[in-house]
Structure formats: structure tokens, C-alpha cells
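BUG-432 | component: ligand-complex export | severity: low

The export step for protoporphyrin IX containing FE jobs runs without errors, but we want the raw record kept on the ticket for reference. Input record follows.
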Amino acid sequence: MATRDRPRLDPATARQVIDPASYAEWDSLLDTFDRLREEAPVAWVESEAGIHRPFWLVTRYEDVMRVSKDNATYLNSPQTVVFSLTEGIEFAKSLTGGSPHLVASLVTFDAPIHMTYRRLTQEWFMPKNLRGLEGEIRTIAAAEVDRLLAAGPEADFVAAVSAPYPLHVVMQILGVSEQDEARMLMLTQQMFGGQDEELNQSGMKDMTTEQITMLVAGAVKDFEAYFARLTAEKRVHPTGDVASIIANARIDGKPLNDRDMMGYYIILAAAGHDTTSASTAGAMLALARDPNQWARVRADRSLLPGIVEEAIRWTSPVQHFMRTAATDTELGGQRIAEGDWLMINYVAANHDPAQFVTPRRFDAARSPNRHLAFGAGAHQCLGLHLARLEMRILFETLLDRLETVELAGQPKRAKSSFVGGLKTLPLRFAPA
Ligand code: HEM
């Protein structure tokens, strides 16, 4: 189909839906998604400045669900995230010998190899296995809350708790020792954290695309060197953590090659922390802005699972993923051509009033709450049980140890169109 036949979004809206800064202006973004769901639920987005490939933006819950579940028609390869740095992708291809991804991972694979790789760790991430980790996670949560209390009576909840906590958990499951954690955090941020200049410790905003890509490629190399050593160690002394599973995995009788093994470690490190951090901060925001709510949940812990689930929907930390059409097809009344690129927008889907009554309201009693924050279909989040477990344990600890919590200032959202959420949450609290 010729580009001119497609219902092209007006330039201002096209800029808004891809600009990382728009994701810090939440209400106005949600207003736009409300309008698009009504007027152009599958809309063609072209960049006037040519900074990204054109794509279809999908905003209705029903359509995002359909695309997510139809993994034969909608592929993850070749590119799963919208990058405004088109030249960066070309540069990455020159470094990797053709792949736009500096790392190959579950997210970039399609059938049949995707399932072969996913099955290696799927069992490990199931609730039955995770139960064995509860004690360790509780210890990490207790240490975070100790630090928060020591910093009190006021602190930024994001910096003090919600950012470091999931990172500690991920580092624990990957077998990274405590003294290496800071370096691993920096490398993870260099690889994936680049959009918000306040969060971007490496000052990428003044760099050229080529410099950024070199920095990211350097971070990947450092990561690889670290995990190569770890793999050798876990082959000799497997410890039951997920790193030991990956290090000792076999496909067709052979160990994973280095690139695939590193991709596995990196996807877990990257996917496991900013996401859970954002939903944790969102849950705290919902509780802290109404002081009675904290007291209510302290008195009735059965409210906690509903709070956790609603916080994940309400925050939708992974804001989009991209798919590529494998064949000509139809979606939401539009003809999609083979090779077309689509953005499934989880923020828009999780605020669709056709699925969620008063979607902008935080409703801990929402039932059913079949949100799409973890995606759906073959690529549905591998870590979803772990994320819920981490949040439940942290809030159990916080509810035990804090008598009251309230907002101590205006929270701020990160400028990020991929993984996003609160970057600050000033809190005042009193110990129990
Ligand atoms: C609240 C926290 C989290 C959210 C909102 C979240 C969200 C998502 C989403 C939307 C996807 C893509 C789903 C799709 O394409 O259908 C995904 C994939 C994935 N997530 Fe999570 N995630 C979270 C936490 C975690 C954690 C804690 C881990 C592990 C340590 C993890 C590991 C993964 C992996 C490995 C994939 C790729 C799965 C595949 O492609 O087969 N995530 N996640």
C-alpha cells in the first residue's frame, strides 16, 4: 500500500507519541491516547525530520492484545524498540555484522528459537521455584527499609528504595557479588537508560550518535567480560541461581554460544530492575497521596495483592514494544502490509475505557484486572511472578516498619518512551 493511502497522524501528535519528554507529561499523553483510540486507533506515524522509521501506532486494548498474541503474523525481529537514532542502528549493524541489536536476546528472537531459549529458564521463574527465594528477597527488602528509615523522616523513595531494591534482587539472581553491583548498574544504565538526561549518568546528551553507540558497545563488552568470568565459575560450581542455569544450559547437546549467553544475562539484568522500580514507586505514590490508605492497608493486608496488580497496570512501566508484520493483514480497519512496523503501546491499552472503568483512577479493588503491562502471547514477561513477589515482600516490610507515609513534594516522571515511570518521589514517613 502506498504511504499516501495511510491515515497519517498530524505532525504534532506524531512528535508527541515518540518524544521521550511527552512521557513525563502523563495526563496530556493519556488525553492524546484517548483521542486516538476514538479517531485513529491504528494510526500511521511518520517523522517529519526522518528520525525514525514510520510505523503504525496501536492504541486500543483489543488490538494490542491481538497483535501480542498472534506471534506468527507479528514478529519481534528485526527491531523491537523505536529508536530515534536511526543512524545509531546503522552503526550498531556495522559493529554486529548486520544485526540492529547490540545484544541478541529472548526479546529479539522469534519462533522457533525463541521458545527453545525461553524454556531454558521458564521453570526457574515459576512461583514454585521462586518460593525458595522469598527469604533472600525479604533480607534485601529489610536492608532497603533500614536505609530508608536511617535517611528519614524525609527521603526520595525512588533513590532510596524503589531503584536500588529490584537491582539488588536481579544481581542476586544473576549471582553478581555486592562489590560488583555498582559497576553493573552503571553498565546497565549506559546500555538502556539513555533518554532522560537527569538519569543518564554518562552525560550522553552532549554526545554524537556515533559516540553513544561506541559507549553502549563498550558497556556491552564490559558486561560480556564480567559474565564470561561468572560463566566459567558457575560451570565449576553451579549454585542454583539463574546464572548457573544459563551457564550450564545445553541446546542440541551443545552449550550456548557466547553472544546468546550474554544476551540472556543482559536481558535479565535490563528487564528486571527499571520496570519493577517504576511499578513499586507508582504503588507508593498511590498509597502516600492518601494517608488514610496506608492505615487501611496496614490493618488489612489482604488488600496488598490488588494494590500490586493495579500499580502495575496504572504505571505500565514498559510503555511500548514494536512488531513487524510477517504478511499482509488487517488490524483495526487498516490494511497492514508485509514488513510494516507496529508500535503496541501498553500505556494506551491499559488506559482503554472499553476495558477498564475510569482507567486513570487507581482502584486497588479493580476486578477483573486483565492488564497488558506484562504483554501477552509468546513473549509475555518472563519475570512477572518475580516482579509481583518483589513488590509484595517490599510492601509487607514497609507496612510493618512505617506507621505513616505522605507526600513531601511533587513527584517527577522520567523522560522515556520505552521503560518509564517516576524518577523522584519525595516522601515523609514515621517509623512504626
Ligand atoms: C513490573 C515489572 C515488569 C514489567 C511491567 C515487565 C514488562 C514486560 C513486557 C511488557 C514484556 C514484553 C512482553 C511482550 O512482548 O508481550 C516483558 C518481557 C520480558 N521481561 Fe518483563 N517486566 C517486568 C519485570 C521483569 C522482571 C523482574 C524480569 C526478570 C528478572 C523480567 C524479564 C523479562 C524477560 C526476560 C522478557 C522477555 C520475554 C520474552 O521475550 O520471551 N521482567 N516484560
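Assignee comment: Attached the raw record above. The chain has one domain: 3-431.
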